[in-house]
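In the lab's daily routine, each protein ends up as an entry in a very long ledger. A line of letters takes care of the sequence, but it says nothing directly about the fold. The fold becomes a row of whole numbers, each drawn from a learned catalogue of backbone shapes. The protein below has been through that process, and both of its lines are reproduced in full:
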Amino acid sequence: MTQTIDPRECSWDVDGLTLAGLAWGPEDGTPILALHGWMDHAASFAELAPRLTGCHVVALDLSGQGHSGHRAAHATYNIWDDLPQIADVIDQLGWADCVLLGHSRGANISTLFAAAQPERVRALIALDSLVPEPSDPEATVTTLRAFIEQTRKMKARAPRTFPSRAAYVARRQEQGNSRQTSEALADRALEAVAEGVRLRGDPRLFASSAVRLSQADVETVLRGLTCPVLNIWGDAGLLHKRDKAQGMVRLARDVIADYTCLEVAGDHHFHLDPDAAERIAPAVLTFLARVT
């Protein structure tokens, strides 16, 4: 059974920005805050969210992406910068706690938030990621250099334009996304301009983080997860492309008390495929019925 497919537009004022989002399902349903991946947006949950019957799914456009505002000139887009804004959105929704549903970078953000604010998170559902990959400590100075240089470069760069929506879709396909994913993400990612269409995303999102988590940091975060965790990976996604991802799954099995790991047919954006969304929705609902 599928809930109403057409989502409701919503917005919140946070840190002087307007953060936008999409909502599906009854407002008295199980509260789920959905966080998208890097340079995606709330519509990445357009296939999965309507299939989560009985749930109130609110998908956020993280700042600088989708229809949300860009941060001030002095601000950054380090992964932890999103955490206080997420807390503000949860407060404005009137939720004492909620389920976090994250994809890719959004899954990493969700894990960090769940570890740091366990009283606000009933359960965590992480799609094709779980936690930021640990960095080699010897790369610290190199990372800082990249952060300085790339942030200055991207601050001066105008958002990328394309002659047409089709050109944007073709570019995403060249970068490894399926045509289906590229089409599904196009509309909310773009705005019309005289030259054609322009990316809404803040170019500073392409800059390096200032620092990255170490192996010890990652282990501390995973040990800090007290809520039940459902971790779903695509068989053609990141799990079999990055050795560190498999290491994180092994560590999660060892240190998280209630951890379930599933693998489904699909690529990194499997949740945007209607067939895959239809397959994983029952697993998500079964998990939620058990833990909420």
